[in-house]
Amino acid sequence: MQQLDKAEISAIVILSLLVVLTLTEMGLSYWEDRHYYETRDTFTNIYLTSLAVVANLVVKGSTFIILSFTYKYRLFQIHNVWLYWFVLIVAQDFLYWLLHYIGHYCRLFWAIHVTHHSSEHFNFTTGFRSTVFEPLYRVFFYLPLALFGFSALDILYAYLVTQFYGNLVHTQYKVPLPNWYGWIFVTPAHHRVHHASNIPYLDKNMGMVLILWDRMFGTFRDEDLAEPVKYGITKQPDDMGPVNVIFHEWKALVHDVKHAPGFKNKMGYLFNPPGWSHDGSTQTARVMQREYEKVA
User: How far apart are CA 177 and CA 95, in angstroms?
Assistant: First the structure.
């Protein structure tokens, strides 16, 4: 378990850096009167990430055991250290993109992921606005890494690296980056699109480190609308209390499944994208985007 302790030390170092950056951004926002932060929203973000930390601590042992057990049956091993880490980080980033994509296109997983998107503000603490229950199933998306010869500890390190980068792009400050950079890597502008509730921006830019996956699989969108970005979700709950902020979409999902006619429609509400309805009374993001393009 000493290996896990090393991973925890790395996590503390990364968290400390993020805290310093967050306090700096918060101070600049206040000094420049930008209103990027709002007190209740910031405390909600801290509350949600605290719950996620607890969830991670609860499952950390089982996560390590599952990955280590799978590693015993690895199919091959990369011996060149530079190639090893390059492939691991790229592969881990792709598998996170897949996890993230499913979190947006399957309503059952969206009910878990929606907490990360429900803030109407966008700043470094939004990156802390964790998907509370994701640690319970995230390990299963990373099992292929163990099968491909990456150790449990190294997978956890790669996850820390990509998560650290993912937090850095949660900012409204315009970061001057060369054009080529945005063709390969996720930028703050890309991630502002991801957190927007403007119809053309819905379910876009799922990448954590590399934007290449979105360019390859048709989920990329530039920050190019004339209208300002509106953060949050399309149907913002009235009650953003400590319980409802986590479970509001679960309540809506249970209601829809309960009242749906027939088994097929009940399964449709669970596994189709958010907004799907058996009678067309609500629309998915893709349908709304097609309608938007007709009138734009």
Answer: 26
Q: Nearest Cα to 100, choosing from 229, 219, 266, 275?
A: 219
**Burial group, residue 209, by CB count within 10 angstroms (0-12, 13-18, 19+):** buried
Work out the average pLDDT over 55-83.
94
Q: Identify the CA nearest to 68 among candidates 155, 138, 189.
A: 155
For residue 73, the enclosing domain spans 2-175
The pLDDT, as a whole number, for residue 12 is: 78
- The verdict on residue 81 lying in a domain is yes
Kindly report, residue by residue over 258-284, the tens digit of the pLDDT: 999 999 999 999 999 999 999 999 999
Backbone angles phi, psi at 153, to 5 degrees: -65, -40
Q: What is the mean pLDDT of residues 99-120?
A: 97
Q: What is the CA radius of gyration of the chain?
A: 20
219 located within any domain: no
Q: Domain for residue 29, yes or no?
A: yes
Evaluate whether 146 touches 40 at the Cβ level (below 8 Å).
no
Q: What is the pTM assigned to this prediction?
A: 0.93
User: Is 56 contained in some domain?
Assistant: yes
Q: How many domains does the chain have?
A: 1
